[in-house]
Design a protein that fits this description.
The protein is mainly α. The protein has one domain. The chain is built from 10 helices and no strands. The longest helix has 25 residues. The chain is globular, with a radius of gyration of 17 Å. 32% of the residues are buried.
């Protein structure tokens, strides 16, 4: 059988979809969907600081469960650039909404375009816009189960990237920080 054999391609697609469903279930088990941040808790901002992007993020995400957010809702209902949202969020909101972005990466993959790339960047100390101390503080607040879920999502994405012969930032993120949490 060759790599272009339709039966093999279908079997690989079926396996990836099964794995995607398992990853989605893993995220739902690890990250509570209740108690989403209020609009005032979504972004860090000084009361006198006005930023239209922050206001749009607070309005879209505030009081919305992370489980309700999909690539479709980000693309069609959010007025700004979905890739930018995690960078504007408070630590609390980032921790709450990260599983939504991870799920988007798993279920939508390259269709999510820059959102896929920026989500992975936020999980890489070398590409994160946060200082090393801030990066550690942000992720130290996750439970062991949540860290394991993040690591296993990155492992899944890394395998997809390798199959697609793409630059594999998910592997880099694993090597830089997350591999210690991978559980099989």
């Amino acid at each position: 059988m060759t790599a272009t054999d339709p039966k093999r391609t279908l079997r690989n697609h079926t396996t990836l979809m099964k794995n995607a469903a398992e990853i989605e279930a893993l995220l739902l088990r690890a990250f509570p969907v209740d108690s989403p941040p209020t609009p005032d808790e979504v972004t860090d901002k000084a009361p006198s600081e006005r930023c239209l992007e922050r206001e749009a993020i607070a309005q879209f995400f505030g009081n919305r469960s992370w489980s309700e957010i999909s690539w479709h809702s980000l693309r069609d209902e959010y007025s700004g650039d979905p890739a930018a949202c995690l960078g504007f969020m408070s630590h609390h909101a980032f921790r709450y909404y990260l599983p939504a972005y991870l799920r988007v990466c798993v279920l939508s993959g390259l269709d999510a375009d820059a959102t896929y790339d920026y989500t992975i960047d936020h999980l890489m100390p070398s590409k994160s816009l946060r200082s090393d101390d801030e990066f550690e503080t942000l992720f130290a607040a996750f439970t062991e189960e949540q860290n394991q879920a993040i690591a296993n999502v990155l492992l899944h994405l890394s395998r997809l990237d390798q199959q697609r012969a793409l630059w594999d930032d998910a592997s880099v993120a694993l090597d830089e920080y997350w591999r210690k949490y991978v559980r099989h």
